Amino acid sequence: MQISAKADYAVRALVELAADTGRPLTCESIAAAQGIPFRFLKSVFRELRAAGLVRSRRGCEGGYRLGRDAGDITVAEVTAAVDGRFMSLRGEPLGELAYPGAARELPALWRAMEAAARDLLGAVTIGELAGAAGGGRRREGALDPVPSA
After folding, report:
1. What one-character DSSP code corresponds to residue 125?
2. Which PANTHER family match (predicted)?
């Protein structure tokens, strides 16, 4: 499974905005703080703005702010805003996937993996990530590692 650079940059940018709510932040300052290519981040912000996850304001006092409370924005929502489909196989959704013969159970595994990832990312908010980065509160277990077998 691969997490797109677009999704990674989008989540990092929103966490940066959530950590500094006192003023709007410029795309340039977020890119510099997170080590993200400015031009790429600018296109990511267009998609985040279209999804209502950020607001922008022009001018010398301008910049970006979160479009909603950070505690109401989930990581799953952010990834969907910039990547579209949550998970796919060769560009196709997993819902209709079917294999013949001995591999017939494999699509159920892929769908279960998608559901587990969606549940995890849907349970973690930008506010929790910003709080964890700044030593703030977060829900118990939301970001705890999964024990290995």
Report:
1. B
2. HTH-TYPE TRANSCRIPTIONAL REGULATOR ISCR, WINGED HELIX-TURN-HELIX TRANSCRIPTIONAL REGULATOR, RRF2 FAMILY
Identify the CA nearest to 15 among candidates 28, 3, 1, 33.
33
- Rounded to a whole number of angstroms, the CA Rg of the chain reads 17
Instruction: Kindly report, residue by residue over 108-134, the tens digit of the pLDDT.
Output: 999 999 999 999 999 999 999 999 655
> E strands within 31-141?
54-57, 63-66, 88-89, 92-93
Using a 10 angstrom Cβ sphere, with 0-12 exposed, 13-18 middle and 19 or more buried, the burial of residue 49 is: middle
Query: What beta strand segments (E) does the chain contain?
Result: 54-57, 63-66, 88-89, 92-93
**Over the stretch 16-45, which tens digit does the pLDDT of each residue have?**
999 987 789 999 999 999 999 999 999 999
> Rounded to an integer, what distance in angstroms lies between the CA atom of residue 116 and that of residue 21?
31
CATH of domain 5-85+125-133: 1.10.10.10
Mean pLDDT of 8-13: 97
Nearest in space to 65 (alpha carbons), one of 73, 57, 55 = 55
More confident residue, 6 or 86: 6
